[in-house]
Amino acid sequence: MNPYEQLLVNKELEEIAKQRIEVHKKRIKLSEELERDFDNKDLQNRIIELEEESQRLKKKSEALRDNF
Q: Dmax over Cα atoms in the chain, in whole Å?
């Protein structure tokens, strides 16, 4: 891989990492809210969605690393 391609991959990996951090922050906040309102199905569903998003981003990141 040439340096330019490596730079592009690194930038994309950095963006994915930032997105994962934001997803994690949101998940923590919702988990704290859920502790106060344990029966809130909307919060539970949103946390599940965020976890799925985090896993999707993780797989995308791994695929990028594996391909280069």
A: 53
Contact criterion met (CB below 8 Å) for 65 and 45: no
pTM here?
Answer: 0.84
Show the tokens assigned to 25. Answer: 């922050």
* Burial of residue 19 (number of CB atoms within 10 Å: 0-12, 13-18, 19+): middle
pLDDT for 58: 96
Tokens 């994690």, residue located: 24
Q: Please compute the mean of the pLDDT values over residues 48-54 and round it to a whole number.
A: 97
DSSP for residue 39 = T
Q: How far is CA 57 from CA 27, 30, 32, 33, 35, in A?
A: 14, 19, 23, 24, 26
Residue 68 has pLDDT above 80, yes or no: no
